[in-house]
Amino acid sequence: METTRNKLTEDEKNFFLKLSNYLDTKLYFFGSIQRGDYFPNSSDIDVDIFTHNENSTIIQMMNFLDAKRSDFKKFVWKLNKSNTLAYGYKFMYKNKENSFSVEFSIYNEKYKHEILYEHNAKKDIPFYATILLIIIKFLFYTLHIIPADWYIQSKKFILSTLLFKKDDHFVVIDPK
Questions:
Q1: Mean pLDDT across the stretch 71-88?
Q2: CA nearest neighbour of 50 among 136, 112, 114, 130
Q3: How far is residue 68's CA from residue 60's CA, in Å, rounded to a whole number?
Q4: Is the dihedral of CA 60, 76, 34, 36 positive or negative?
Q5: Which long-range contacts (CB under 8 A, 24 or more apart) does 139-146 make?
Q6: Strands across the sheet containing 85-95
Q7: Residues 138, 142, 147: CA angle, nearest 5 degrees
Q8: Closest listed residue to residue 45, CA positions, set 108, 111, 1
Q9: Average pLDDT rounded to a whole number, residues 118-123
Q10: How far from chain centre, in Å, is Cα 147?
């Protein structure tokens, strides 16, 4: 998952290459960028970063992305396969100059194997689920005729209930 199924623009490739070099770590892509329901310039790009020192990585990202510490939200995720509680940080980055957005998830290295397993479980989905995701994304991103909360709930339903998978449980524990 260090590469993407869907093609990144040159600006996106350069951004991720520079960030990976700056952090001296690999970036792992997951979510719609790895499936057929990705909408360029609309869908965000989901990226996992695994590190032995989350605080150091956050400080490096703050410097590289000109972000504030309060932009990084601590959360806990109950992993479906192992029932392990994985702690991490989420950060939403919008690159206005090149019109793309990235949701970064920063985790301790000790969670890497289990988290990559969870993400891979939603990488190859049935054709009918892909079509449904494309339809709701088209209605949301292109036609703007469904509200954000309905879009989010529909995506969750398709990626969990419809695929007979457990819903992911995330709780922000640092809402500042």
A1: 93
A2: 112
A3: 11
A4: negative
A5: 141/39, 141/42, 141/43, 142/39, 142/42
A6: 28-30, 45-51, 100-108, 85-95, 73-78, 169-172
A7: 80
A8: 1
A9: 90
A10: 21
Tokens of 50: 């695994």
Residues 105-141: b if buried by 16+ CB within 10 A, e if exposed: bbbbeebeebbeebbeebeebeeebbebbbebbeebe
49 DSSP β-pair partners:
106
> Look-up: residue for tokens 């292109």?
142
Phi–psi pair at 42, nearest 5 degrees? -125, -55
Verdict on whether the full-model pTM lies above 0.90: yes
Q: Count the residues in the chain.
A: 176
All structural domains of the chain: 10-123+167-172 (3.30.460)
Tokens of 41: 């310039």
Contact 118, 80 (CB under 8 A): yes
Q: Is residue 48 predicted with pLDDT exceeding 70?
A: yes
Q: Which amino acid is at 74?
A: K
Q: Which residues pair with 107 in a beta bridge?
A: 50, 88
